[in-house]
C-alpha cells in the first residue's frame, strides 16, 4: 500500500519545482500587466491632453498670427519714423525762432529722446522673440495633437530621413558634439516619414541639450530585429536621474528653463511611435549618457489591424 502511495504522490522536489515555475510565470505575467497598464495610462493621457492641446493651439494660433504679422509691419513703420526723426534733427539748425528751438529742446529732454530711440529697438527685438517663442509653442502643440488626415504612409529609406534631419539640427549640435553614424543594413520601412524625422529630431536635440562642458558624442545606430527595424540614439550627456525617468514621456514634463523646453518633444515622439505600433525605450546612466531605442515594424499591415481593434 505504501508503495502505491509513493508512486502516485509527487515528490516534494517536484512540487517545489512546479510551485517555483508557476511563481515565475505569475511574476512574468504581472510584469507584462504592469507594462500594459503603464502604456494604457500613457496613451489615455496623451489622447486627452492631445484634444486639449488642439483646442488651445487653435484658439491661440489666430491672434498670434495677426500679432506676428502686424509686428512685422510695425517694425518697418518704427524704422521709417526713426529715419524721419533723424532728418528732422538735422534740420533743426535751420530753425531761426529761439522759442521753437527751446520748446523742442525741452520736449526732447522730457521724453529722453536719445534713450527712447535706442530702447525702442531693444523692446521691438525682445517682443519679436517673445512672439516667435509663442508661435513655436503653438506649432509644437499643433504637431503634438495633429490628426493625420494629410499624412501619407510611405515606404521610406530611414537613413535618408535621419541624414536630412541631422542636417537640419546641425546648428544645435555642432558646437557640442560629434555625430557618429553606425548604420546597419536595413530595408525600407512603411511609415509616416516626416513624423519619424520629427522623433529623431526631438531625441537628437535632447541629446545635444544634455551635453555641456567638454565636447560630447551622439551616436546613431540602426539595425533589424525579426520584422522590425531599430534605431538607437546615444548621447554622452548628463543622463536622466532615476527619479524622473518615468515622467520624461509625460506631456509638458521638462527640466529645462522657460523658453528652452516645452516638455512636449518626448510625449509627441511617444505618440508617433505608438501610432506606428512600434516601441520607444530609454536607458540612462547619470553622468555617462542616455540611449533611446526605437523599434518600428517594417510593414504597416499589422499596425493597421491593431489600431482598428483599439479604436
Ligand atoms: N538625452 C537626454 N539626456 C538627459 N535628459 C533628457 C534627455 N532626453 C530627455 N531628457 C529629459 O526629459 C525631459 C523631457 O524631454 P522633452 O519631452 O523633449 O521636453 P523638453 O526637451 O522640452 O524639456 C527633459 O526636460 C529632460 O529632463
Ligand atoms: Mg526636447
What does this structure look like?
This protein has 311 residues and is an alpha+beta fold. The chain has two domains: 147 residues, no CATH class; 157 residues, Heat Shock Protein 90. 62% of the residues lie in helices and 15% in strands. The strands form two sheets. The protein has a five-stranded mixed beta sheet with strand order 2-4-5-7-6, covered by helices on one side. It is elongated. The relative contact order is 0.09. The C terminus is likely disordered. Magnesium ion (MG) binds next to helix 6.
The largest sheet has its strands arranged as 2-4-5-7-6
**Strand/helix succession:** HHHHEHEEHEEHHEEH
Distance between the termini: 62 Å
Would you state the CATH class of the largest domain?
A: Alpha Beta
Radius of gyration over all CA atoms, rounded: 30 Å
* Estimated structural class: alpha+beta
Number of domains: 2
Under CATH, the topology of the largest domain is which? Heat Shock Protein 90
CATH architecture of the largest domain: 2-Layer Sandwich
Q: Give the strand content.
A: 5-15%
Largest sheet: 5 strands, mixed
Look at the structure and name the CATH superfamily of the largest domain: Histidine kinase-like ATPase, C-terminal domain
Q: Tell me the helix content.
A: 55-70%
Q: Write down the overall geometry.
A: elongated
Low-confidence stretches: 305-311
How many extended strands?
Answer: 7
Q: Helix count?
A: 9
Q: Give the overall pLDDT as a whole number.
A: 86
